[in-house]
Design a protein that fits this description.
The protein has a seven-stranded parallel beta sheet with strand order 3-2-1-4-5-6-7, sandwiched between helices. It is built from seven helices and seven strands, in the order βαβαβαβαβαβααβ. Helix 1 packs across helix 7 and helix 4 packs parallel to helix 5. About 35% of the residues are buried. The longest helix is centred in the middle third of the chain and has 29 residues. The mean pLDDT is about 95. The termini are far apart. It has one domain: NAD(P)-binding Rossmann-like Domain (Rossmann fold). With about 250 residues, it is an alpha/beta fold. Bound molecules: NADP nicotinamide-adenine-dinucleotide phosphate. The site of NADP nicotinamide-adenine-dinucleotide phosphate has 25 residues, from helix 1.
Length: about 250
């Protein structure tokens, strides 16, 4: 049963969705290793929840693996992510392409590679990825972010093929708009609250934490492969068309 899970690792635990998942998994009785860069936030989280801080950049797989040496990781929540730039692809700073691919796609793949042999050997484990609706459908100004999340989504499907017979589960949670600090660098002048949240009814991080808890709680022979969750007031699609103006 999934209650055999004892240890969880959560990346991006210092803010938003990751921060909400920590107390939820602690309440399940799991030891939680909280991975983040902000030492003060990690200390506060440890104090409030009993989580074990791992101060590391998620791109530094070796450092995280060293901190987890000898730890039998049962649940890995790959949550850390950035939307560092929102710009038409012809205008995006090329460095931002690498930043988003490195944090949103390469880092979870490498961390998965680090913990997976133990999970497979024990035939016990649950890999959880926080994807994005931006990885399932096109959005303007999200070329690199969307590609990183779409890659993550296919990776989840590929993993399920490789892990057949191991009892290791793979779940991708795919949210629409959640009220967090994700847009802090990509919307100018701290306008994210006014542009994205004021007057809207966005998902709250605790709702995503509840979904993570629920997919873990199911019997181990049941794998919720993908959950798409939107605010009731948000939808994707619509055939955008513009009039051509000659140069
Ligand atoms: N908010 C939404 O509408 C939404 C929608 C769909 C999907 N998501 C996804 O949800 C996940 C969580 O984001 P959020 O909305 O909760 O945003 P958030 O409040 O900005 O939290 C992101 C977390 O990731 C951490 N992080 C970023 N880069 C890191 C790095 N290099 N090393 C270690 N930690 C790093 C941040 O830590 P620092 O404070 O140190 O930067 C922070 O703890 C992301 O994968 C995001 O793409 C969010």
């Amino acid at each position: 049963m999934s209650d055999a899970y004892r240890v969880a690792v959560i990346t991006g635990a210092t803010s938003g969705i990751g921060k909400a998942i920590v107390p939820t998994l602690r309440a399940r009785g799991l030891a939680v290793y909280a991975v983040g860069r902000n030492a003060a936030q990690l200390a506060a989280l440890a104090e409030a929840t009993g989580a074990i801080p791992v101060e590391a950049d998620v791109r530094d797989t070796a450092r995280i693996a060293e901190a987890l040496e000898g730890v039998e990781v049962d649940v890995l929540v790959n949550n850390a992510g950035i939307l560092s730039s929102r710009a038409a692809f012809q205008d995006i700073d090329p460095a931002e392409i690498d930043a988003m691919i490195d944090v949103n796609l390469k880092a979870p793949l490498h961390l998965t590679r680090a913990v997976l042999p133990g999970m497979v050997a024990r035939k016990r484990g649950h890999l959880i990825y926080i994807g994005s609706s931006g990885g399932q459908a096109p959005y303007p100004n999200m070329g690199a972010y969307g590609a990183s999340k779409a890659g993550l989504s296919l990776f989840c499907d590929n993993l399920r093929c490789d892990l057949l017979g191991t009892s290791v589960r793979v779940s991708e949670i795919v949210p629409g708009r959640v009220q967090t600090d994700l847009y802090r660098t990509s919307i100018a002048n701290d306008q994210a609250q006014a542009v994205l949240y004021d007057g809207y009814r966005p998902i709250q991080p605790e709702h995503i934490a509840r979904i993570v808890n629920d997919v873990i709680a199911l019997p181990v022979y049941v794998d919720v492969a993908r959950v798409e969750v939107f605010p009731t007031d948000q939808a994707t699609g619509g055939g955008t068309m513009v009039k051509f103006e000659a140069p």
